[in-house]
Design brief:
This protein is mainly β. It contains 1 helix and 50 strands. One of its GO terms (biological process) is cell migration.
C-alpha cells in the first residue's frame, strides 16, 4: 500500500514565516483540477492554472494524517459514499477528509478517508470510487507561489546563497541577505529546477550549469509542510559538509536534513541621499549618508506593513531604523513599533520618507539622517536602488507577464512566465527581455525557452518601451525609463515615461495607461 503522508502548513524556524503553499493539481491528461462557481462543481478541463485552479491544503484538527482541500471559493472538496464529488461544503465534514498517498515520482493519489476510495478521472467525469491507484487517480503538484524566494534548511537553520567563487550553492547564511540569496524555482514538465541569481541551474551533483540538463530537475515533495527535492535517481537534495554545499545525498527517504522551507524574498535596497553618498550603518547606530561603496552595511531590507503600507527598514544585523529623540534616526529597534515605520512618498526617480513625528527625513551637513523636515526639498530626497531582483518575474491578478506568442506585446494572464532583466539607471529602471520561442502549452515550460532565458541580459536582448497606443512592447533597441514603486507588501507598481502605470487590460495585454494604482496595476515580484 502506498505510503500515506500528511502535511502541516506551519511557521518556519527562520527569519520570516514560510510562504503559504497554494498549488494546482494536474491529472494524467495534463489538465488542472478546477472549482467552478456555478453549482460548486469540479472538473479537470483547464490547460492552465489561474484562480479557479488554486487549492490550499489544510490539516484536519482531529487527526493530523487527514487533509482537507479548500478551493479559491473557500469551499471544501468532498466525496460521498457513492463516489460523487463536489466542492460545496462551507465547513469541513466527514466527506471532506482525504489521505495523501505519495508516489515515487512525486505525484499524489487522494484517498477518501471515510470511504477508502481514490479520487480521479478526466474533464467533467471526476469521481472518488476507484479501489486501486491507476494513472487516472494520480495528480502532479504545481506550486502557485511566486517562484522567487529564499530557501531555508530546516535542519541547519541556514539560508541558501550563491557562492560564486566556489561555483555552488551553500546553506551557510544566517540571514538571506543580498542578491546571492535569491533562488528562482523553474517549473517544467512536472518537475522543478533551482536557478541562482546569475541564471545558473543547480545539478544534483551540486554543480551550477549555464544551461539546463535533465539532472538539474527535481521532483518536488511536500512533507510535514516542508519541501523535499528528489533527483532522477531517487536521491534527495541536502546540505553537505561544513559549508552546507547543496547537492543530492545518498538518502532515498527524506529526513530532517532533506527538508526545506521557502520564505518570501523581501526587497533589499541601497539608498543614496542628496549628497550622492550611500546611507549606512558602518559608523554605528546613527544612520548616516556618508559612504561611497555599496556593501551589506549599506543594504537595507524593506518590510512593508500589509495594513498601513508603511515601511520598516531592516539592517543586516537584524535591527530596524527607528525615530529617537530630537528627530534622530538610529538602527536600534528590535521589534515592530510605530517609531520604526516610515511613510514613503514616491516622487518619480526619488522618494521622500516621513517618520512617525510627521516630519520628513533630511540629510544633515555631516550626513546624519534626522526627521526634521516640514516640506520636501533637496535634502529630503533619496534614491532607492533595488538590488536583489536582477532577474524579474512579474505576476498580476490574472497570471504571469509573458511574451505574446506572435507579436511584440506582453501578456498578463499566463501560467508560464518569462524572466526579464532589471537594470538600474539613475533612479529609474530599464527592463530587458529576450525574444524566445516558447512551447504552445502554458502548463509546460519549454526547455528551449529555459536555456534562452539563462542570460536575459545578453547582447541580443531587447528593451521594454511604451508605444504611441500605450501598449508595452518588448522589442526596443534603446532603453526606456520606468520607475518602480514598492506600494504594498510583496507587490509593486511600474510607472512609464508618460506618467501612467502599467496594468493588464481586459484582453490580457500589458498597457501603460492607468492613471492610478489599483489591483490591475500591482505586480508580485
Amino acid at each position: 500500500f502506498p505510503t500515506i503522508i500528511y502535511l502541516i502548513i506551519m511557521a518556519t524556524n527562520g527569519i520570516s514565516k514560510a510562504l503559504k503553499l497554494q498549488f494546482g493539481l494536474i491529472n494524467h491528461d495534463n489538465r488542472y483540477l478546477t472549482a467552478e462557481s456555478f453549482g460548486f462543481k469540479v472538473n479537470a478541463s483547464s490547460s492552465s492554472m489561474k484562480k479557479k485552479q488554486l487549492w490550499t491544503l489544510e490539516q484536519d484538527k482531529r487527526d493530523g494524517q487527514v487533509v482537507l482541500l479548500r478551493s479559491h471559493l473557500g469551499r471544501y472538496l468532498s466525496a460521498d459514499k457513492d463516489g460523487r464529488v463536489n466542492c460545496a461544503a462551507e465547513a469541513p465534514n466527514s466527506d471532506c477528509r482525504f489521505l495523501i498517498a505519495a508516489q515515487l515520482d512525486g505525484r499524489w493519489a487522494l484517498l477518501s478517508e471515510p470511504h477508502q476510495r481514490y479520487f480521479g478521472g478526466s474533464e467533467d467525469f471526476l469521481s472518488c470510487f476507484a479501489q486501486a491507484i491507476g494513472e487516472a487517480e494520480l495528480w502532479a503538484i504545481h506550486l502557485a507561489l511566486h517562484p522567487q524566494a529564499n530557501l531555508l534548511s530546516v535542519a541547519r537553520k541556514r539560508y541558501a546563497r550563491l557562492s560564486a567563487t566556489a561555483g555552488e550553492i551553500t546553506m551557510d547564511s544566517d540571514i538571506p541577505w543580498g542578491v546571492d540569496s535569491l533562488i528562482t524555482l523553474v517549473y517544467t514538465d512536472g518537475k522543478y529546477c533551482l536557478k541562482t541569481c546569475d541564471n545558473r541551474f543547480l545539478s544534483s551533483e551540486g554543480i551550477l550549469l549555464k544551461e539546463y540538463e535533465p539532472h538539474a530537475s527535481f521532483t518536488l515533495e511536500l512533507r510535514l509542510g516542508k519541501l523535499a527535492f528528489k533527483n532522477i535517481k531517487g536521491m534527495y537534495l541536502a546540505p553537505v559538509g561544513p559549508a552546507g554545499t547543496l547537492k543530492s545525498g545518498r538518502c532515498t527517504k527524506p529526513g530532517k536534513h532533506e527538508l526545506f522551507d521557502l520564505e518570501e524574498s523581501h526587497p533589499q535596497v541601497v539608498i543614496q541621499a542628496a549628497n550622492k553618498r550611500y546611507v549606512s550603518i558602518r559608523q554605528g547606530v546613527n544612520i548616516s549618508a556618508n559612504q561611497d561603496m555599496e556593501t551589506d552595511l549599506e543594504t537595507f531590507q524593506m518590510e512593508i506593513d500589509k495594513e498601513t503600507r508603511k515601511c520598516m527598514f531592516k539592517t543586516n544585523e537584524g535591527s530596524y531604523w527607528t525615530l529617537v529623540s530630537h528627530g534622530g534616526i538610529q538602527s536600534t529597534a528590535t521589534d515592530i513599533e510605530a517609531n520604526a515605520m516610515f511613510h514613503i512618498e514616491w516622487l518619480g526617480r526619488a522618494v521622500a520618507l516621513k517618520a512617525s513625528n510627521r516630519k520628513y527625513i533630511s540629510t544633515k551637513g555631516n550626513g546624519q539622517l534626522a526627521a526634521v523636515g516640514d516640506t520636501v526639498g533637496d535634502s529630503e530626497l533619496f534614491q532607492l536602488k533595488l538590488i536583489n531582483r536582477p532577474i524579474l518575474i512579474l505576476r498580476g491578478e490574472n497570471g504571469f507577464v509573458c511574451h505574446h506568442r506572435s507579436s511584440n506585446t506582453l501578456d498578463v494572464n499566463r501560467t508560464a512566465y518569462d524572466i526579464f532583466s532589471l537594470l538600474f539607471s539613475d533612479g529609474a529602471y530599464h527592463i530587458k527581455s529576450k525574444l524566445i520561442e516558447q512551447d504552445q502549452s502554458d502548463s509546460v515550460f519549454c526547455l528551449k525557452a529555459i536555456y534562452h532565458l539563462a542570460s536575459p541580459a545578453g547582447g541580443d536582448g531587447k528593451f521594454w518601451y511604451v508605444s504611441s497606443s500605450d501598449l508595452v512592447c518588448s522589442d526596443g533597441d534603446e532603453p526606456e525609463d520606468f520607475t518602480l514603486q514598492l506600494q504594498e507588501h510583496g507587490r509593486l507598481a511600474i510607472r512609464g515615461n508618460n506618467g501612467l502605470y502599467l496594468h493588464g487590460d481586459n484582453d490580457g495585454t500589458l498597457k501603460c495607461d492607468a492613471a492610478c494604482v489599483d489591483s490591475a496595476s500591482l505586480w508580485e515580484y
